[in-house]
C-alpha cells in the first residue's frame, strides 16, 4: 500500500484527520453531561395543508439543529462553548462534552441560551446544506 502525500515524512494526510480531534483529550476526568439533539424546520400552511413544497418530517428537510445539554449545579458564567462546522466543544468545571455533529452547521451564526430553572443550555445552530430538490431556498 502506497500512501500519497505532498511531504514524504508525514504519516497521514490532513484530510484523514477528523475535524475536532485537536479537542479530544481522553485523559480529562470530567464526566459527559446528558444531551439531546433535536431538529426544527420552518413550515407554513402551504406545507401542512396544501403539500405545495417537497418538505417531509425527515431531518433532511430541517433548517436548524437544537442541542439541549443538562448542566446541573452550573452557572452561566462557568460555561465555555466553542462551535466549529462539525464539532461542538463544551466545558464547565464539572462537565465536558465533545460532540461531533451529524450535519455541518453555520458556526458563526448560532444562538445559545441558558435556562437556569431547567439547568439546561440550549444551542440552536443553522444547518449548512447543499442546495438540492428539497433545500432550494
UniProtKB/TrEMBL annotation:
Protein known as: PIHD3 protein
InterPro entries hit by this protein: DNAAF6, PIH1D1/2/3_CS-like
Domain of life of the source: Eukaryota
Biased composition (Acidic residues): 13-26
Protein's GO biological process: axonemal dynein complex assembly; flagellated sperm motility
The family this protein is said to belong to: Belongs to the PIH1 family.
Origin species: Trogon melanurus
Region span, Disordered: 1-26
Chain's gene name: Pih1d3
Residue ranges occupied by any PIH1D1/2/3 CS-like domain in the UniProt entry: 32-127
MF terms in GO: dynein intermediate chain binding; protein-folding chaperone binding
GO cellular component, as recorded: cytoplasm
Amino acid at each position: 500500500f502506497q500512501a500519497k502525500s505532498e511531504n514524504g515524512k508525514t504519516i497521514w494526510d490532513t484530510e484523514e484527520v477528523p475535524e475536532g480531534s485537536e479537542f479530544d483529550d481522553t485523559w480529562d476526568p470530567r464526566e459527559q453531561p446528558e444531551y439531546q439533539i433535536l431538529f426544527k424546520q420552518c413550515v407554513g400552511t402551504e406545507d401542512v395543508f396544501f403539500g405545495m413544497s417537497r418538505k417531509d418530517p425527515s431531518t433532511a428537510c430541517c433548517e436548524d439543529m437544537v442541542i439541549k445539554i443538562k448542566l446541573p449545579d452550573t452557572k452561566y458564567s462557568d460555561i465555555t462553548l466553542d462551535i466549529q462546522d462539525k464539532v461542538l466543544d463544551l466545558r464547565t468545571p464539572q462537565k465536558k462534552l465533545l460532540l461531533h455533529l451529524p450535519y455541518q452547521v453555520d458556526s458563526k451564526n448560532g444562538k445559545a441560551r441558558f435556562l437556569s430553572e431547567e439547568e439546561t443550555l440550549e444551542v440552536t445552530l443553522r444547518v449548512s446544506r447543499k442546495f438540492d430538490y428539497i433545500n432550494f431556498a
